[in-house]
Structure formats: C-alpha cells, structure tokens
Amino acid sequence: MSQKPDNTKIPGQGDQDLRALLDNYPGVAYRCLNDGDWTMMFISAGVHDLTGYRPDQLLAGHIEYNDIIHPDDREYVFLQVQGAIGKKQYYQLEYRVRTADGQEKWVWEQGCGVFNAEGELLMLEGFINDITERKQTEQQLALLVFALNHVHEATYLIDEHARFLYVNDEACRALGYSRGELQQMGIEDIDPGYSMELWEVHWNEIRNKGAISLETSHQRKDGHVFPVEISANYFEYDDREYNLALARDITTRKEQEARIQHLAYHDALTDLPNRNLSLDRLGHAMSYAKRHGQTLAILFLDLDNFKVINDTMGHPVGDELLRQVGGRLSGTLREQDTIGRVGGDEFLIFLPELSSAQDAAHVTEKILAALIAPFEVTGYSLHVTASVGISLYPRDASDVNTLVKYADTALYLAKDQGRNTFKFFSPELDQKIHDRLHMENDLRQAIKNNEFLLHYQPQFNLATGVMTGVEALLRWQHPVRGLIPPGDFIPLAEDIGRPYHSSGRVGVTHCRRPGTCLAGGRYLQHAYLYQYFPAPACTTRLSR
C-alpha cells in the first residue's frame, strides 16, 4: 500500500466541494483513529441514514462507532482491520450494526490505513455501505436452496436450450452425478429417449400452458434406467425463459400398476392368461392368420374326472395339480402358442401359423402325451388325462366367440366318446349337441310332468313253462316325439344327475296298478328303473 503524507487535508477544513461530494455519497465516508472505539475524525452525512445518529454526535464523542457495531461482531471487526493494516493492505468485511432505534442492519466496509513518510499509522479511512437488503435476499436464497435440497423430488432449473442451470441434492442422489457434473449437462444426457425435437414440442407446450405433467425415463450415471413423473413449470425472469422441473421416481408405482394389470389379465392360481386376455390374444392371432393366409387352431382342453380328485383329496391338492398341469402344458407348446386357464379345470390353447388341420392334431397328441406321466402332489402320485375339442380358423368360423363355442362343442364329443382323446368340430357335431341340449331340457320337464311309463315283460321258467315274474321296462312318453326308448335317454339322465324322487314315484305308481301283481308273493323287477333310477320302492313286493 502506498504511504500517504501526514499533511493530508481533512475534508471540512476549507474544501467544501469535497465535503458536499462525500455527503451526497449514498453510503458513509469516514476517517477515524485506530483506537478501540474507532474515534471519528470525519464522517459523512450518510451515517444518519444508516444508523440514525448524526455526524456531530460521533465527532463529539457522544457515541462511539464501536458502540454502534453489533456486540457479537466487534471482535471480528477489530481483528480483521488490525490484520489488514498490519500488512498494509485494504480491508473488506461484512458485519452488523445497531441503529439508534434498535434495528439491526448489515454493512459492508472497505478501508485502509493512512501512513506518514516514516510508515507510522496516522488514521483509517474508508467507506461503509448498507447491504441489509442484499443480505436478506441472500438469506432468502439460502433458505430457498436449503428447502429445495430437502425436497424429495429431483429439482432442475432448465434454460430454453434444455441445459441445467441448477439441480438440488435429490437430483444428484437420484442420478449419481455431482452438482458440478449435472450443471454441465442437459436433458438429453439423462433421458435416453429424449431429443431436441421433442424438447421443442414440450417447450412450446409449457410456454403456452404455463405447466405440464408427463412421464418419461431417466438414466443414472451407472446406466440404470428408471421411470419418472415430471412436473414442468414455465416462468420468465430478466427477459429470459426458464423451466423449473420436478422429477419424481415412480418405480414403485409402476411396479404396482404392472402387478394390478397382471392380476387383471392372468389367472391367480396358475399365472396363465385368464379368459379376457386369452380371447384378446386370440383376436390378434386371428388377424395375423388372416393377413398371412394361415390356419389357426383353437383347443378347448378339460381335465377328465378332475372333480373326483378335488372332492376326495381336497382343494389344496386340486389347486396344486392345476398349477402343475398348467406348467407342463406350457412347456409342451411352442413359443408362438398361447395357453390360458378359462375355468375350473378348463384350458384354452390356440396354435397359430399352422398349414393344416393335421398340424393341430399332431400338437394335440403331444399335449395329451405330456399328461401321461404322474403328477407328484403333496405326497400323492396323481394320474390325469384330458379331453380336447378343436375348432379351426378360418374353416369353422371367423369370429372369436363362435370359434371358442365350436371348440367347446367338440369337447363334449371327446368326453362322450371315452375321454383322453380329441375331436374336431363339424357342423353335424354342432347339430348333435343342439339336439342333446334340447333333449336334456325336455328330460328335466318329463320328470316334473310324470311322462315316464312302465312296460311289463313276463319272465318264464324254461324248464316248467311257468311264468315266474315280469320285468318292468321304463319308457318315456314325449308329448311331441312320442315314445322314446330308454337307450336314447338313460345315458343322458346319468350325465345330468339321477332324479331319485321322480323314479320312485314312477315305480310306486306302476307297481300298484291292478293286474300287475303276481300270486305267491313274487316280485316285479324293474330293470332299467332299478339300474338308473335307484330309489325306495324300485323293487316292490306284491301281495296276493
């Protein structure tokens, strides 16, 4: 620092122009002694605006400047000033003062020591400025930064070129970069699917709407990609445009949504596609087959006698068996095939990219063969077979529901012809099934309407020629079709359940008719009635 002569003129001793200049200075200009009180030799009028004290009060010693400095900052000020003048350097420092009315203000002071030719310190001189407003702004900014760094969402201040101007601590943690690294990057660097073309679209939308929300993905420094939800907010400051974006990691939410979506379209027991998903995929497969001129086979598979296993061994065993069956069937199919569980023990399978019906037959044979090996379930070795009905697209039908219905119709035939086999749908089969359904409905009504009759056939002793009894044969007197023999309806009655009470009523009614009794206490034997409709009074002792 250059030395100043000891005859330096002090403003106010003849130099009125300089004094007026310093009094108009918005801050405070001063000269003071380097004593503990900073006794003022000159101080400009600005001290009154800053502290509420007049210059004459400080010059007369009514108040010392050291008393105006905040008590907590006095030692700091003293040490900073002494350290600087000891090195003959300028000092710059910030500290607090207390005004005459008790307010607290922040000031910035810059000054230096004034030395004579011999290097002796004569005084201090400098300037003091009010920085309270700046300090408040800095404190508010510090509070804002502190708050942003405690927000759980990654926060980015982005300019109009998609570059990061500021990122908070959560952004650094989420992406694995330092703040310095991120502030040298932009959106394209953290979003693997982003482009400046897409940024222009989003930027225009933000500018027009003020705020938008969107979902995208961010990539960590280690390459891990995770889904995020972005809330982008537009604002302008100092003639520039900005975007304040908050990014929330939605990995957990996406996993939950995927789980819910999976449960909505998959069977909870086997994890196979359920009916809704199976039919949806079947629709897509049919469209593909139509475009490429291919055959598509729909297989409706039902396990044989599964109800017996489920009822006798319990539902846990039945459930585990279904899981294993689903797994084994899935392992048998090709990658492009689809299998779904559409009912209790029913599975829907469709086979795309086939050339002919024979291809479907080969795959079905492979499926049935896969079920031959026993299933080990909770200590039981279970053997199951299956029946399969097959319909073909486009040969049989051109819509999903009809194809599934026809495959189900063919399944009935497979069940009817011995099980553990497969049958293809045909129009004749469809008519046969319809006839069966009509007969089933009529049979239930026949039981209610007492439409069954007994025809009696005598029995003779071949050695003596004597009639020993009669055999009662059950017949169905249909109101439209006439007399129906038992061979046409007894098997159907077995399938839909045995009407015990009705059969008993038929037996009792006919056994008590006059003229149907044999002398000697012999018995009428109701062959079909006894075999297919067991009930009390099916074999009735006749009195004389």
Name some characteristics of this structure:
alpha+beta; rod-shaped; disordered C terminus; 5-stranded antiparallel sheet; 20 helices; 544 residues; single chain; 22 strands; 41% helix
Overview of this protein structure:
It is built from 20 helices and 22 strands. Strands 2-1-5-4-3 form a 5-stranded antiparallel beta sheet, with helices on both faces. Strands 7-6-10-9-8 form a 5-stranded antiparallel beta sheet, sandwiched between helices. β18 (452-460) and β19 form a beta hairpin.
Lay out the secondary structure.
Elements (H helix, E strand, L loop, with lengths): L15 H8 L4 E5 L7 E4 L2 H6 L3 H5 L5 H4 L5 H13 L4 E8 L5 E12 L5 E10 L1 H17 L5 E6 L4 E4 L1 H7 L3 H4 L4 H4 L5 H14 L1 E9 L5 E13 L2 E10 L1 H15 L9 H18 L2 E9 L2 H8 L1 H18 L5 E4 L4 E9 L2 H14 L4 E3 L2 E3 L3 E8 L6 H17 L5 E3 L2 H23 L2 E9 L6 E12 L3 E3 L1 H11 L3 H12 L11 E4 H6 L7 E2 L3
Parallel strand pairs: 16-17, 19-21
Antiparallel strand pairs: 1-2, 1-5, 3-4, 4-5, 6-7, 6-10, 8-9, 9-10, 11-13, 11-16, 12-13, 14-15, 18-19, 19-20, 21-22
Helix pairs in contact: 13-14, 17-18
